[in-house]
Write a structure and sequence with these properties.
Length: 184
């Protein structure tokens, strides 16, 4: 069965054009929703993927209606493939996984996405390492400045309790344990 999927990002936008194109493409059932492809939960897309049967064909007007990133597109394409179905885009004729050329293009996309992911990881790692060498500290900022740490240390050595010091500095006792390296 040919199944359509139509999506617009906001309530103000209309699905009319997509619905017409999907009906002309022979879709017997069309899942439709008005939700952002980046941030919203796409319930209709989930229903469509759950109800796929072998040899079903998913048709979209454009690929960005199905997914907003190559990574997400590949994830969805894999779910479609796992169900024994295929998909195609009306506006991008090269995106048709029923043909060997379309499957090849998806394989190339997968390779590019994997390469891009590895480059990002490599650049991020290199940047983090370089920043550490320059003395940049990562993580949450300390609630105590150096003077407060010295005061807390002095008060602790004078016999004040962690609870008293925490109240004095207006911090939680766990902050003092973390900053003073005291065993609780």
């Amino acid at each position: 069965m040919k199944i359509g999927y139509a999506r617009v990002s906001t309530e103000d936008q209309q699905l009319t054009f997509q619905l017409q194109a999907l009906k002309e493409a022979g879709c017997k059932k069309i899942y439709q929703e008005k939700v952002s492809g980046d941030h919203g939960e796409r319930k209709e897309l989930g229903k469509m993927l759950e109800n796929l049967r072998e040899n079903d064909g998913i048709i979209v007007w454009r690929l960005d209606r199905l997914a907003r990133s190559t990574q997400k597109l590949l994830e969805i394409a894999d779910k479609i493939h796992q169900a024994g179905a295929h998909f195609r885009s009306i506006s991008e004729p090269w995106a048709d996984t029923i043909s060997s050329a379309g499957r090849m293009v998806m394989t190339v996309f997968a390779g590019i996405a994997e390469f891009e992911k590895e480059l990002i990881i490599e650049r991020t790692s290199r940047g983090r390492h370089s920043a550490k060498e320059r003395g940049v500290k990562f993580g949450r900022l300390s609630k105590l400045n150096p003077e407060q740490k010295n005061l807390a240390s002095r008060l602790f050595s004078e016999g004040k309790s962690i609870k008293q010091i925490a109240k004095t500095l207006n911090v939680h006792s766990s902050t003092l344990y973390r900053n003073l390296e005291i065993q609780s």
